[in-house]
From TrEMBL, chain A:
Location in the cell: Cell membrane
Signal peptide residues on this chain, from the entry's feature table: none
Descriptive protein name: ABC-type sugar transport system, permease component
Region feature (Disordered): 1-25
Keywords of the record: Cell membrane, Membrane, Sugar transport, Transmembrane, Transmembrane helix, Transport
Source organism superkingdom: Bacteria
UniProtKB/TrEMBL annotation, chain B:
UniProt family annotation: Belongs to the binding-protein-dependent transport system permease family.
Lineage: Bacteria, Bacillati, Actinomycetota, Actinomycetes, Micrococcales
GO biological process terms, semicolon-separated: transmembrane transport
Keyword entries, A-Z: Cell membrane, Membrane, Sugar transport, Transmembrane, Transmembrane helix, Transport
CDD domains with a match to the protein in the record: TM_PBP2
Membrane topology qualifier: Multi-pass membrane protein
Domain ABC transmembrane type-1: 100-315
GO cellular component: plasma membrane
The name this protein goes by in its record: ABC-type sugar transport systems, permease components
Primary site of residence: membrane
Transmembrane portions of the chain: 43-63, 104-125, 137-158, 184-209, 240-259, 297-318
Gene3D superfamilies named among the record's database cross-references: MetI-like
Renumbered residue ranges of the record's region Disordered: 1-24
Length: 299, 359
């Protein structure tokens, strides 16, 4: 260490003294302020979860207790059981419906978006650019604009209350098509397609052997993203489903009704319902983060 | 669909075990099919999106327009034409104007602080911190919680009598706020839920834009003696403009449709005793599935759409004049991109004439 140390204590604590050299420029490690700010942000992100745990693990009097306690009570499982076993909530049906519909929607969106994205990005056909513009334009149309006729349509064919009514309208996504188009455009060199064609591969075979492998990273992110969105979707499922056959958010909304004035039970249910997505996030959060960041740059 | 297109184009692949009925009868049939394959398959690939959009998107949108001119009968499943009566009805309701005001108020209260926070947090994450991915993931934790769940937790925290927020306010000697009775207070509470869920998401988008700024700028600024704060305002913030506009547009479209949080804010779900937090979407639900009047709901849906269109156009107009001379995301100017497109087009034309000559 050639630099004269003014603060030997921190220097001793620093395990990698070689990092000190570029400290003058931007590569240097930031000070406490950055970490403190980020710590506060992280705390703010977690506090509502923790608050749900505090109330959800107490009993019905916890909420009225003005003496704040920051230690969870012991009633979480009692409260959770009250939600899980309540026939009015249909928690298990909701859980299954949410898993089933979100997975199916994610798979379908990924497949059709890759297919359409491949066509828009790499195949030349009459009207292609205009059709792509049309796809992008549909992204600005609010859900609310279609719900009345959609509801009429589904009640005509007897699908109201059926999970199919949630799945079918979500099977493709304009955002997904746009996303895959953007990605495939730069991910696959045109020469590769020409080579496949010279080898006599059909259009679909070219897609399978050249397009699909190249699309895989973007497809994974799109799938994850679609899954989260579908899982948390509320407006349309709330309209078209009923309490016998809900998705998880619809089941949750039933907790906030006059049947459940006990907030401990309500928040235990809320916490329980967020567990699946939290688990998913623990395993795939890194991909979700990079997906959002990548989408932003390409947007 | 695909099987009819595939085998003849790939004779090598289909030769050993291809279906015998499909063997080409004439010379040249295979190449003809392969030409069809090339011509038709793009349309086949994009058709699922367009077919589904036609059924679940375009048809409902147009039909909403039709229904909005009708007095819709639930039981018969048809309506009688009433002209603009439903629009006149909706526009004459004080509840509509309450909803419009609330929607905009909640939208402003959620977008402005959210973006300020997001820019700040992104600037913190843009530093050379340790455990980058961990912090980034941490920021996104609220995003995976369903809006309904967020609303349930926060409406509890903002409880009028026993909520933690009022309790804490009491601790420091302030009077409790009527989060569920006062209009403005309810907007703040609902905007807080929106901010909680979306700040992290926007942070990551802005962070991506920050990382795209060439590091040499900062080095040069450091050499020139500019501090961190000065660098942020002179380099970072100006480069963020396009992304900021993108974020503003998306959060406008989302904000005008807000439903989940106000719906779950109290046990009634009707937007408050005096429409304190009734939003347009919530009002639409109330008209359609509370009063079962589809004609009025459809009219309101079209009004909402027009509002979004106007705001969107306004956004685009403002952003165009703001971003005109900014560099684009792929680092090319518009002229450069046009030149590249022209070159490609020429190449394509040359290729296709070459092909034509060959066959």
């Amino acid at each position: 260490m050639s630099v004269i140390d003014t603060s030997p204590v921190t220097a001793a604590a620093d395990p990698t003294p070689s990092r000190r050299r570029p400290r003058a420029v931007r590569g240097s490690r930031p000070g406490w302020f950055v970490y403190a700010s980020l710590g506060v942000v992280l705390l703010a992100a977690i506090v509502p979860y923790y608050w749900a745990l505090l109330i959800g693990s107490g009993d019905s009097s916890t909420i009225r207790n003005t003496e704040l306690s920051w230690i969870p009570g012991g009633n979480f499982f009692t409260n959770a059981a009250a939600v899980l076993n309540n026939p009015a909530v249909n928690f298990w049906t909701g859980l299954w419906n949410s898993i089933f519909s979100s997975a199916l929607i994610a798979a379908s969106v990924v497949f059709f978006s890759t297919l359409a994205g491949w066509a828009f990005a790499k195949l030349r056909f009459r009207g292609g650019p205009w059709l792509l513009l049309f796809v992008v334009a549909t992204m600005a149309v609010p859900t609310q604009l279609g719900v009345v006729p959609l509801y009429i349509l589904f009640s005509e064919i007897g699908w109201t209350g059926q999970i199919g009514a949630v799945i079918v309208p979500a099977l493709t996504s304009a955002f997904g098509v746009f996303w895959m188009t953007q990605y495939l455009r730069q991910a696959v060199p045109d020469e590769l397609i020409e080579a496949a064609r010279v080898d006599g591969a059909s259009s679909f075979r070219t897609f399978l052997t050249v397009g699909v492998p190249a699309a895989r990273p973007a497809a994974a992110m799109l799938g994850l993203f679609t899954f989260v969105t579908a899982w948390n979707n509320f407006f349309w499922p709330f309209i078209v489903l009923d309490r016998q056959n809900p998705t998880l958010p619809v089941a949750l909304s039933l907790l906030q009704s006059n049947y459940f004035v006990d907030y401990s039970v309500v928040l235990a249910g809320v916490l329980l319902s967020t567990v699946p997505l939290l688990l998913l996030f623990v395993f795939a959060g890194k991909q979700l983060v990079s997906g959002i960041m990548q989408g932003a740059v390409k947007g | 669909m695909t099987t009819t297109l595939q085998p003849p184009a790939a004779p090598a692949a289909s030769a050993p075990d291809g279906p015998p009925a499909r063997t080409p009868r004439r010379v040249g049939f295979g190449s003809k099919l392969s030409a069809w394959d090339l011509k038709l398959s793009p349309y086949l690939y994009i058709s699922p999106f367009f077919i589904l959009f036609l059924v679940t998107g375009l048809f409902p949108i147009l039909y909403t327009g039709v229904i909005s001119f009708m007095d819709w009968d639930q039981i018969r499943g048809s309506g009688t034409f009433v002209g603009f009566d439903q629009y006149a009805y909706v526009l004459s309701q004080p509840a509509f104007w309450d909803a419009l005001r609330n929607t905009f108020s909640i939208f402003v209260l959620s977008t402005v602080p959210q973006l300020l926070f997001a820019v700040f947090i992104a600037a913190m994450l843009d530093q050379n911190i340790r455990a980058k991915t961990l912090w980034r993931m941490g920021v996104l934790v609220p995003y995976v919680m369903a809006p309904v769940a967020v609303a349930l937790i926060f409406s509890n925290m903002f409880g009028d009598q026993y909520g933690i927020v009022n309790t804490l306010l009491g601790r420091i000697g302030l009077p409790g706020v009527g989060w569920h009775s006062d209009t403005f207070a309810s907007h703040i509470a609902i905007a807080t839920m929106v901010n909680f869920r979306w700040t992290g998401y926007n942070t990551l988008i802005l962070l991506a834009a920050m990382q795209a700024v060439p590091r040499e700028y900062y080095e040069a600024a450091t050499v020139d003696g500019a501090g961190k704060v000065r660098q942020f305002f002179s380099i970072t913030l100006p480069s963020l403009k396009p992304t900021l506009i993108f974020v503003i547009i998306t959060s406008t479209i989302g904000g005008l449709q807000i439903f989940d949080e106000p719906r779950m804010f109290d046990q009634g779900g009707t937007g408050g005793s005096n429409n304190q937090w009734l939003t347009i979407s919530l009002y639409l639900y109330k008209l359609g599935w509370g009063e079962w009047n589809f004609g009025r709901a459809a009219a309101l849906a079209w009004i909402l759409f027009l509002i979004i269109l106007v705001i969107g156009a306004l956004n685009l107009f403002i952003s165009r004049s703001l971003v005109r001379d900014e560099g684009t995301r792929d680092g090319l100017t518009r002229a450069q991109r046009r030149a590249a497109a022209r070159a490609t087009k020429q190449r394509v034309a040359a290729e296709s004439t070459g092909k034509g000559a060959r066959s």
